[in-house]
Amino acid sequence: MSAHLYALLGWIRETSLGRNFKWNTSSSTVVLPQEIKDEILGYLWDDKRALGACALACRAFLDPSQKLIFSKVIVSPPTPKRRARSSTTQRPGLTATRLARLLESIPRLCRYVQHLEIRDEEDEWLLKDTSIPQILPRFINLRALVINYRKFRYSDIVSWPDNFL
User: Fold this and answer.
1) Is the separation of the CB atoms in 77 and 122 below 8 Å?
2) What is the DSSP string of 83-141?
3) 161 — phi, psi (to 5°)?
């Protein structure tokens, strides 16, 4: 380590800044408070690939990364196998079945979902799907529910039951 870095670390230790950090004196490393780590990860809110890498890189990043990754979830139609093999582009989001399996294996992820978007612009899978009614009540912190349904018309609006969500 350079002399300049040692001088900087010495100055930080002696000032009020140094009182907020835990120091490992054998290697001169700083252990950042979780709030600082959360703030750093917050800058990656729209980069799910980077957040996934952070979640794998450091145990302290796992929970905050997953909160950001799962704050907005997009549920897409299941892709028929014949189209999946020939198509080079993937639809964004998870299928309802895959999301249900994921939530079954890691239940805490349900708490992180604040925005849920369900897309059914072409396949009309939503009317036949059994996973959506099972997973919707599990999203206790849901703030927004967006349903993109191609055949939906204003005259088709139905009233939701009082106990929905």
Assistant:
1) yes
2) HHHH-SSPPSSEEHHHHHHHHHH-TTHHHH--EEEEEESSS--TTT-SHHHHHGGG-TT
3) -65, 155
Query: What is the distance between the alpha carbons of residues 48 and 53, in angstroms, rounded to a whole number?
Result: 9
Asked if 140 and 112 count as a contact pair (C-beta separation under 8 A), the reply is no
- Mean pLDDT across 161-165: 59
Single-letter amino acid, residue 69: I
CA triplet 65, 93, 140: central angle to 5 degrees?
A: 60
Answer yes or no: are the C-beta atoms of 67 and 40 closer than 8 Å: no
- In this structure, what token pair is assigned to residue 129? 């799907």
Note the pTM of the prediction, 2 decimals. 0.67
10 φψ region: left (φ > 0), alpha (ψ -120 to 50), beta (else): alpha
CA angle 51, 56, 57 (to 5 degrees): 95
Give SS3 for 52: helix
At 105 the pLDDT is 96
At 43-85, the pLDDT tens digits run 888 899 999 998 998 888 999 999 999 999 999 888 765 344 4
